[in-house]
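Lab notebook, design round three. We kept the backbone fixed and only want residue identities now. Task for the bench partner: fill in a sequence for the structure below.
Input structure tokens:
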């Protein structure tokens, strides 16, 4: 009997699952009306018909073989294991004083800014829709000193006892290279505890914070335990990068750090900007960081009232989650004695006791393609196929050994 394991997929991620690669040419099930027909397409190429189903746990029959109407011999292969890529989110979260105080008027913004943002973040980290993702959380600024009128203050200061100066530790990238909440599976209550304990104060040393975020992300990406996973940075801030840290917090330098991570490590940076009055040029500056980091534009959240701020910040987090949620299947190592053939691999959606082929389509659409045709490492589900998988609640099977099926017939070797 031919067996198919499952990949269970959620909107945020997918889990490791055993995949079996069926024997092609089986008479137990077929495309079309179940009679093992040729499935020819206009133009005479052999290809699959529609509506194939499993027969007593059997495999999919690919008649038509190489496009000449014959059956492809030797399609049988044995089981292997694959998984959809896990996504690791490295959060760098602004807890500067402007999160709770209007820097222009001195009035409190805690109830309409910090509190709803924390509530939204708590919800995100505890949401079952984040299941299957990993996340870490680091606050900036940190490394501040205790002054008579400020707790953990980070930035330029004047104090009756200490005199004037700036806090050196908060300007050091090593301060942000260790997370307040280390990387762990979501959902997790640990993030809510850390957010509740955070005490906003001080300035916005974005440049060293970004350096620290990249150091964390690179460490995760290069960890053998996270091989084949995707790692991204999420920078959430309400302020322009400030220059008090020895002129090390400029927008250009921060953007350059994000650009290097995207280019050299394939680590993208997503930016959420909390827009409050008095931050001239904030969106342009944060857009520059997001664009350099490979994610396009910053997602801006306006501070209007508590409910609107919470809703907008949570929508921003959910938008990023949707953008980075993987629909990529890591190509497994072939079974012993077998070799991977990019022209003899097929993908099948299993849902509601039916097996529906997802056809290879280099231009995407409702199909799949390789991440890189010349050196494929993963199978990328195109957006329409990815949405079908999510909506069906089904699973994927990957079959090795039969000619890869396309909308116009099988790929001819």
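Proposed sequence:
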């Amino acid at each position: 009997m031919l067996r198919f394991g499952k990949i269970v997929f959620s909107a945020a991620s997918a889990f490791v699952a055993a995949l079996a690669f069926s024997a092609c040419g089986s008479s137990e099930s077929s495309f079309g009306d179940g009679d093992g027909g040729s499935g020819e397409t206009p133009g005479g190429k052999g290809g699959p018909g529609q509506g194939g189903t499993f027969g007593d746990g059997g495999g999919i029959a690919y008649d038509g073989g190489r496009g000449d109407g014959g059956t492809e011999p030797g399609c049988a292969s044995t089981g292997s294991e694959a998984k959809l890529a896990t996504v690791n989110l490295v959060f760098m979260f602004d807890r500067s004083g402007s999160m709770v105080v209007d820097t222009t008027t001195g009035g409190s913004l805690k109830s309409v800014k910090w509190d709803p943002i924390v509530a939204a973040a708590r919800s995100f980290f505890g949401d079952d829709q984040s299941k299957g993702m990993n996340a870490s959380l680091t606050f900036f600024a940190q490394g501040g000193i205790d002054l008579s009128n400020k707790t953990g203050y980070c930035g330029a200061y004047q104090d009756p006892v200490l005199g004037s100066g700036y806090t050196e530790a908060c300007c050091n990238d090593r301060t942000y290279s260790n997370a307040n909440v280390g990387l762990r599976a979501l959902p997790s209550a640990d993030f809510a505890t850390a957010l509740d304990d955070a005490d906003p104060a001080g300035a916005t040393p974005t440049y060293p914070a970004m350096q620290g975020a990249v150091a964390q992300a690179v460490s995760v990406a290069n960890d053998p335990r996270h091989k084949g996973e995707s790692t991204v940075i999420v920078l959430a801030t309400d302020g322009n990068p400030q220059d008090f840290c020895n002129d090390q917090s400029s927008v250009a330098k921060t953007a350059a750090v994000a650009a290097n991570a995207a280019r050299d490590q394939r680590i993208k940076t997503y930016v959420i900007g909390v827009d409050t009055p008095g931050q001239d040029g904030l969106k342009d500056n944060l857009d520059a960081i997001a664009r350099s980091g490979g994610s396009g534009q910053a997602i801006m959240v306006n501070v209007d009232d508590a409910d609107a701020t919470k809703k907008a910040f949570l929508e921003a987090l959910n938008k990023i989650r949707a953008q980075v949620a993987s629909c990529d299947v890591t190509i497994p190592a072939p079974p012993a004695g077998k070799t991977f053939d990019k022209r003899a691999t097929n993908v099948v959606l299993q849902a509601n006791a039916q097996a529906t082929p997802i056809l290879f389509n280099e231009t995407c659409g409702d199909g799949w393609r390789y991440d890189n045709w010349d050196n494929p490492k993963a199978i990328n589900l195109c957006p329409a196929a990815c949405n079908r998988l999510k909506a069906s609640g089904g699973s994927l099977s990957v079959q090795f050994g039969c000619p890869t099926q396309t909308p116009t017939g099988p790929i001819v070797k």
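Keep this in mind before ordering anything: Residues 1-82 have pLDDT under 50 and may be disordered.
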